[in-house]
User: Which sequence fits this backbone?
């Protein structure tokens, strides 16, 4: 246990206690409800409170008094929310105090920013800590967050990094030189928790195996995987290398963590305290049968600024709901699909994270609606662009992509009205069609 960890935990507890201990209470309730389940009364009450609220305050829902039950409300994709953004936004948002931005481009390549109030932001943060603590995390531990960090867009200040004991681990490039530096930083900076996307964890563990690196002196106690589905091979290799299993999670930037793996349970335990989950048929908005693969749809109970009712996440999965002997309701995602982006390579043959392409799009939010980078050869790429061409500076967009692909990348631009959807029901922000690297 590091000194900095203990000090930060003490400071957090003292500051929270001075404000009535709200965050700690929220965290403990969240943890308890994830493990012990919720009551049917809680789920019914939260849904009806939310639906009454949106029909009173959201212009999008105001004109439909006939929508009384959740099943009456339309299923909304990310594109639907973007198209109707101003109407979904509540009319009392200016009275809610400071608002926070939850931004993502997502694996589907559509930039999206959700506004929320301080209460929802606290819930997102405590939801994250709750999911971590249920798997051995201790408040204040030094964590390395693996992302494609973009200066001026998603990087954090030195003060916030110090306060949260957070190290920014850049995964824009996952070639051997970059992975070597990441390994050195993990050891030198005594990082205790790796919070990483599946693709980055796959690249890191394969590099560790290839180089036979001695990690016995590392301080890492927890590996937390998020984003795209974690391959079983990576799960097993991580356990072999570190001596413990990584934690699988499911969620997004718009809502927070929706489900979490507990212990080594192969299923994901759904957070029924914060969300109402549904699985709908692939070709209609009817509920999927038990055990049937369908679309993952969630309703967020607590965003009172930009309410997300029946949000189609773009992912597919299989869910089971059941009651325990005490009558409490539990939800499990038996399987989760989607977020399996093709592995792309730069002109040097080095692998690139899918999140490079996702975060590049954040720079052009509001101008580029969708984009997809396709690799056709060693240095040959095609960029499908759905954008406002009057505002678009294509040279600036190409420069942003070449920053990661390589200055010698040959990029053909194809303007489209919409990115073609794959058979899975999703379109990806990148795709590798080069036989040499498939």
Assistant:
């Amino acid at each position: 246990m590091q000194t900095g960890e203990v000090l930060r935990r003490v400071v957090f507890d003292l500051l929270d206690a001075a404000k009535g201990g709200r965050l700690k209470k929220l965290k403990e309730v969240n943890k308890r409800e994830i493990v012990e389940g919720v009551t049917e009364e809680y789920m019914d009450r939260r849904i009806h409170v939310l639906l009454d609220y949106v029909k009173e305050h959201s212009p999008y829902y105001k004109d439909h008094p006939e929508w009384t039950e959740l099943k009456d409300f339309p299923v909304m994709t990310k594109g639907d929310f973007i198209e109707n953004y101003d109407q979904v936004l509540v009319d009392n948002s200016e009275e809610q105090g400071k608002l926070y931005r939850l931004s993502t481009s997502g694996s589907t390549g559509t930039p999206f920013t959700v506004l929320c109030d301080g209460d929802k932001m606290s819930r997102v943060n405590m939801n994250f800590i709750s999911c971590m603590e249920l798997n051995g995390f201790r408040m204040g531990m030094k964590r390395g967050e693996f992302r494609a960090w973009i200066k001026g867009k998603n990087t954090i200040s030195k003060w916030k990094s110090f306060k949260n004991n957070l190290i920014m681990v850049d995964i824009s490039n996952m070639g051997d030189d970059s992975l070597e530096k990441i390994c050195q930083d993990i050891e030198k900076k005594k990082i205790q928790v790796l919070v990483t996307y599946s693709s980055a964890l796959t690249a890191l563990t394969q590099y560790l195996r290839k180089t036979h690196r001695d990690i016995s002196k590392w301080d890492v106690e927890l590996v937390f995987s998020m984003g795209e589905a974690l391959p079983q091979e990576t799960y097993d290799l991580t356990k072999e290398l570190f001596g413990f299993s990584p934690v699988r999670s499911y969620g997004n930037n718009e809502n927070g963590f929706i489900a979490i793996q507990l212990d080594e349970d192969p299923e994901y335990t759904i957070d029924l305290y914060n969300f109402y989950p549904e699985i709908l048929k692939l070709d209609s908005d009817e509920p999927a049968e038990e055990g049937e693969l369908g679309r993952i749809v969630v309703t967020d109970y607590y965003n009172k600024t930009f309410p997300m009712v029946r949000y189609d996440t773009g992912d597919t999965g299989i869910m089971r709901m059941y009651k325990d002997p005490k009558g409490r309701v539990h939800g499990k995602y038996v399987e989760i699909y989607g977020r399996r982006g093709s592995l792309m390579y730069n002109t040097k043959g080095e692998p690139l994270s899918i999140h490079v392409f996702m975060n590049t799009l954040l720079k052009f939010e509001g101008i580029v609606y969708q984009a997809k980078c396709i690799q056709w050869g060693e240095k040959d790429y095609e960029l499908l662009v759905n954008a406002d061409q009057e505002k678009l500076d294509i040279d600036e967009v190409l420069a942003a992509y070449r920053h990661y692909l390589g200055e010698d990348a040959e990029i053909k631009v194809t303007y489209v009205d919409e990115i073609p959807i794959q058979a899975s029901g999703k379109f990806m922000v990148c795709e590798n069609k080069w036989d040499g690297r498939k």
The domain at 3-141+221-337 is CATH 3.40.50.12780 (Rossmann fold).
